[in-house]
Automatic annotation (TrEMBL):
Top-rank taxon: Bacteria
UniProt source species: Mesobacillus jeotgali
Coiled coil regions in record: none
SMART domains: Fapy_DNA_glyco, H2TH
Protein's name according to its UniProt entry: DNA-formamidopyrimidine glycosylase family protein
Biological classification of the source: Bacteria, Bacillati, Bacillota, Bacilli, Bacillales
Family the entry assigns: Belongs to the FPG family.
Domain Formamidopyrimidine-DNA glycosylase catalytic, chain residue ranges per copy: 2-106
Length: 267
């Protein structure tokens, strides 16, 4: 599932492709991907310019000229492609937003969705979310305070969107490897030094993820050499050597999520 760095990469690349452009046509291939009747969606979204694209947690918000918002969550398996009709991937398209000759194709939206909402409704959706971990006001102190209230395995907490926003299954393993902490460690058994290391690893890994273009498999457009450049340390690398100590990375399961870590240098 795309996480903070993937959505941040989409935000930046889409901003340069469709920012300020007018949505000239809409096609809905799967009505369940939207939240209102097709004709209402089409009426309120067509001929609107995309003013800005913002990100919160794993969501993107397309702000339209008329004040309405399109709230996107890709969930598991969702992705996007931008380009001409003849270049589109040979996949079922759930939603297509046209910008003249070019189109933004939404693919794999089975659990994911594109909802038409007012800014107030978007805020309501975001109320349940924890802090944005890369915001400057999310300080080391704020992190310590948040963690002191928690119990349970650290991995489960890192991916809980109501505690911290934007971290999912992939980057939680990367962060814990970087901080040299086992994913099944109990939070209340971590000392202050480990918690501080964890805070800095969250910052480091997510910024590295953004810088390297995240881990999505498919490019956003033809010639896109940014998307998918992220190199994993441990995630999906079962049996391969740890780049710190060369021990074999193992795969395990925590709260029924597949988890990768180095049994030697993560404690
Ligand atoms: Zn290791």
């Amino acid at each position: 599932m795309p996480e903070l760095p993937e959505m941040e990469t989409y935000k930046a690349l889409l901003g340069s492709k469709i920012g300020g452009l007018n949505i000239s046509a809409i096609e809905i291939g799967r009505e369940k991907s939207i939240n209102v009747p097709v004709d209402k969606f089409t009426m309120q979204v067509s001929n609107q310019a995309v003013k800005t694209i913002t990100r919160r947690a794993k969501y993107l918000v397309f702000q339209l000229q008329n004040g309405k918002c399109l709230l996107l969550h890709l969930m598991l398996g969702g992705w996007m492609f931008f380009g001409k009709e003849e270049d589109k991937p040979n996949r079922t398209i759930q939603v297509k937003l046209s910008f003249g000759e070019q189109h933004l194709f939404f693919i794999g939206l089975r659990l994911g969705y594109l909802h038409l909402l007012s800014p107030e409704e978007v805020e309501e959706e975001f109320k349940k979310l924890g802090p944005e971990v890369l915001n400057p006001d999310f300080t080391l102190d704020a992190f310590h305070q948040l963690m002191h209230k928690r119990r349970g395995a650290i991995k489960t907490t890192l991916i809980n969107q109501e505690v911290l926003a934007g971290i999912g299954n992939g980057y939680s393993d990367e962060i814990l490897w970087h901080a040299e902490i086992r994913p099944d460690q109990k939070i209340n058994e971590l000392d202050d030094q480990q918690l501080s290391r964890l805070y800095h690893s969250i910052q480091f890994i997510l910024k590295r993820g953004i810088q390297q273009g995240g881990y999505m498999e498919n490019p956003l457009y033809i010639g896109d050499d940014k998307t998918g450049g992220y190199q994993f340390y441990v995630y999906d690398r079962e049996g391969q050597g740890c780049s710190r100590c060369n021990s074999s990375i193992i795969k395990s399961e925590i709260s029924s999520r597949k988890t990768f870590f180095c049994p030697n240098c993560q404690q």
